[in-house]
Design brief:
about 100 residues; about 40% helix; alpha/beta; about 25% strand; two-stranded antiparallel ribbon; globular
């Protein structure tokens, strides 16, 4: 199960059965009901579940932010390649940059 941390919203658990958090789940329905437009992605593996979920989010017209220091995979080269690939569908930033953005 993946737990979604939603600012000012209740924590909700989603059973993730595939690389994408959207595949055969109610995630999109829940996000739409909560009127969430921007998603922040972290996790393992950068070039697996993270990238697949980010691309699915993009196809569903969600804004995607990937925390570059909040993801990992088996090698730095694979991590960097996945981040480079996601650059066209998501905004990349560090955890500290996101905190600065939230705090204003």
């Amino acid at each position: 199960n993946e737990t979604l941390a939603l600012f000012g919203k209740p924590d909700i658990s989603i059973a993730k059965i595939s690389f994408s958090a959207f595949y055969m789940t109610r995630l999109e329905w829940i996000l739409r009901k909560l009127e969430i437009e921007t998603l922040v992605f972290v996790g393992i593996a950068t070039n697996g579940g993270v990238e697949t979920s980010v691309r699915d989010a993009h196809c569903r017209d969600f804004n995607a932010i990937v925390l570059t220091d909040g993801c990992a995979t088996t090698s730095q080269e694979e991590h960097d390649a996945a981040l480079c690939s996601m650059r066209v569908v998501a905004r990349l930033m560090t955890c500290d940059e996101l905190i600065e953005r939230i705090e204003g």
